[in-house]
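Hey, resending since the last one bounced:
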Amino acid sequence: MTVLALTGGVGGAKLALGLAKLLPPGDVVFVVNTGDDFEHLGLHISPDVDTLTYTLAEVANPATGWGRQDETWRFMEALERFGGETWFRLGDADLALHLRRRTLMAEGLGLTATTELIAKSLGVRHPILPMSDDPVRTRVLTPDGPLAFQHYFVRDRCKPTAVGFEFDGAAAARPNPAIPFESLEAVVICPSNPYVSVDPILAVNGMREALAATGAPIVAVSPIVGGRAIKGPTAKMMRELGVPATTTEVARHYAGLASHFVVDEVDAEAAPDVGALGMSTTVAQTVMTSLDDRVQLAKTVVDLIR
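The structure tokens again:
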């Protein structure tokens, strides 16, 4: 079995870890959103790639889901004293990863090759593929103008009203050539934010068409449970876009692409509405608070595929 899992950061990485525990490296490939990437302090920061890398290496901060466990912050404390920008926090161990990435990319390696070397150094065996080696940047449209994603998400803490999204560079970008489209047996859309984690991946020129052309089942897992997002601003964004914050509306967002949809037990009554959108529906516990929860949801998805 060759499964392609599309994921963003913390929420998607939870299911990704469950899949990695359940399936060997040859059976699952992770394609990660890089629309969140940006240049900061002279470094290429790739938040979702790093979150997945740390998660699969089992060194992620368990309290936040992002960053390193047992992190220290002396660099940021010193930078603040010098009057530097500290709104985007880089821990000391995390900073080492970014410096290593800058060195490797300065030597001519692309983001994919750099990610592979960093992941292997942390003991990660499953393939982690940036969605593209070409730059794509997510911008959040607000009444006061567009914001670079990290300015919206971290600096401004998601407070501005989101009225839309743009993915600069997506039309010119190419899907990562290492994605094994020709041998895929299934695609999993992890429970990441549909608008700013999954849509940037699908916006890469030819990505959506290539996924559809595989003929493989595409299973999406809802990030909305009981009208709320388990992690991040998904529900807030949906309300601001004039879309009800429901699992049915998430399914509607993926209609025409996903063939199967997984809803949480809390939203079991939504299953017929999702089915009416042309997807087969499975009800399961999708809230993942423990490692066992992650593995059990991964098992549900894999059993559905099989």
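The chain has twelve helices and 14 strands.

Sorry for the duplicate.
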